[in-house]
Amino acid sequence: MASRTASSRPVGAVTRGTTNPNRLRRMDRWIAAVHGQALRRTDGAVAVDLGYGAAPWTAVELLGRLRTAAPRVEVTGVEIEPARVAAARPYERDGLTFRHGGFEVPLDGGRRPMLIRAANVLRQYDEEQVAAVWARLRGRLAPGGLLVEGTCDEIGRRHVWVALGAEGPRTVTFAARLASLERPSDLAERLPKALIHRNVPGEPVHAFLRDFDRAWAAAAPFASLGARQRWVRAVRDLAADWPVTGPHSPTGHAPADGERRWRQGEVTVRWEALAPVGWG
Asked: Where is this region: Disordered (predicted)?
């Protein structure tokens, strides 16, 4: 995506705008679980739904889900297509606004967001552009803020996202509706732009998905107890060789980002373990 030449114009290009209700529920629930405390303790915390698309559903839903963890948080939907902003304005209410903009993330009064969620925004970019976009968005965060960028399918059954702080990428989370998952590597088609072209031999993410499939196969006897129990067992085995976050991991993450999340069909891994060869 090429940047606009005039500084007064939003930075970015129009996306396809595809959206569906509940498409981002897995990402939203993870954010509320692992970042809700930071949102709750920050006065005037604002979260941005960047590139929400042709309909405002994801921004409306983000407000509702975040307020279960942080009752005073506000959400601003930011879209580069003016017609989409105009169509969303009737849905504004207390705590929910919509703005015309792009990667500059314009907020009233120079406010900085505690959260920027960018879902299905970077798929049309070249891989070489991702680091610069991440850096720009991270630069807009308030102290202690979080950028979450990733990709999901059209109805939110499979989703992979990267969480980034001011210092850079921290973790990669894989999330799925387990009843529809044949094997963990099915999530490969939803890898974020920084990783999707790296699912090839010799790259860490390829090795991770290979090992996850092996752990899933080894956990087949647990399938009689349900897909959730099989997933949890596979993740436990996987954690022997990969830095999976959890209550007993040395990653510094809270227990909310551990086995409690595994039972929701999620697993989170430190970015450094999956970063592309030559990254940075």
From this structure: 1-20, 243-262
